[in-house]
Write a structure and sequence with these properties.
Length: 143
Amino acid sequence: MKINRSGSAVWTGGLKDGKGAISTQSGALDAYPYGFATRFEGQPGSNPEELIAAAHASCFTMALSLILGEAGLTAEKMETSAVVTLEKQDDGFAVTASKLTLKATIPGTDDATFQELAGKAKANCPISKLLKADISLDAELLG
């Protein structure tokens, strides 16, 4: 099975004074603004790194849901955030890390099993496989 998803970006102007717009196939983002200031100066708007963070958090959480199901478990609730790090290096900028933080309520499991299954999801979600960065996970079983 092969699935293709698409996103697009439009840019006008130079790097610092230019403006961009990001769109996704689903329409969740439709000409959403991004630019130098939103990426490097904390101004309102989107940037590639926050989109990668959202993609990584959602992919990991779905992967963990699958792995839990295979173990006969169902999460009551899982909340995952991701922080993607963009760093200046000798040859430009690179995404060097993605830190996943998970808080989960999963009846019928213990912390050791939870940590093992969460680690498996971290290693095997498609976005983790895509990233050439240090991927860490801080997983907390609640309840």
